[in-house]
From TrEMBL:
Stretches that traverse the bilayer: 62-81
One matching Pfam family: FMN_red
Lineage: Bacteria, Bacillati, Bacillota, Bacilli, Bacillales
Top-level taxon of the source organism: Bacteria
Alphabetically ordered keywords of this record: Flavoprotein, FMN, Membrane, Transmembrane, Transmembrane helix
Protein name: FMN reductase, NADPH-dependent
SUPFAM superfamilies recorded: Flavoproteins (SSF52218)
A GO term for molecular function: oxidoreductase activity
Organism of this sequence: Lysinibacillus sphaericus OT4b.31
Domain NADPH-dependent FMN reductase-like: 1-111
Length: 185
């Protein structure tokens, strides 16, 4: 079973990355740090005569991860009550990717790729982060991806996620589930 975590924080060793580490401790996985990739914003040409055009950036790494993963985690800080801008940029480009003739099997693959969202914020995220979770739900629904779970954690300063006992407990439970799933293969 292949697992990829898309890390959407602009800060190294962020709380959202730490929450991801709790979830994936002892589980084989890869991390893609979106901030380290050159991903151009979408140029929405789906209604033009030429359609979307090839973009020479690192987005193919995102597609490759989606095509080779059974489970993907979207780990993001909660910025202004939504996902980070760099993660939103990555998600926006999916409009292009699902129409890219180089990846005709992408939409079919997403039907069996489980999505998990991990998000950390500082302003009552367990309530104020829910609209963002709904947004992810709509995104995954549009892509026909199974949305298996999410965790909302509360933290501001680096490392504070360790103080959110509920999020850490949820991460331990999800970790146990992932270990069980990966041991069956």
């Amino acid at each position: 079973m292949n697992i990829t975590a898309f890390i959407g924080s602009s800060r190294p060793y962020s709380n959202s990355e730490k929450l991801t580490d709790y979830v994936l401790e002892g589980v084989a996985h890869q991390k893609l740090f979106i901030k380290d990739l050159n991903i151009q914003p979408i140029d929405d040409l789906r209604h033009s005569a030429q359609g979307f055009q090839f973009v020479d950036d690192d987005y193919d790494q995102i597609i490759h991860a989606l095509m080779t993963s059974d489970i993907v985690l979207f780990a993001t800080p909660i910025y202004w009550y939504s996902m980070s801008g760099i993660m939103k940029n990555m998600v926006d480009r999916l409009s292009h990717a699902i129409r890219d003739e180089r990846f005709p099997q992408l939409k079919e693959k997403l039907l069996t790729t489980q999505a998990i969202v991990l998000a950390v914020g500082g302003d009552d995220p367990k309530i104020k982060g829910l609209p963002m979770i709904q947004q992810f739900h709509y995104i995954f629904n549009f892509l026909n991806m199974p949305f298996s779970s999410y965790i909302l954690g509360e933290a501001n300063k680096p490392g504070e996620i360790a103080n959110d006992e509920q999020a850490v407990a949820q991460a331990a439970l999800l970790n146990k589930q992932l270990k069980t799933m990966t041991s069956r293969i």
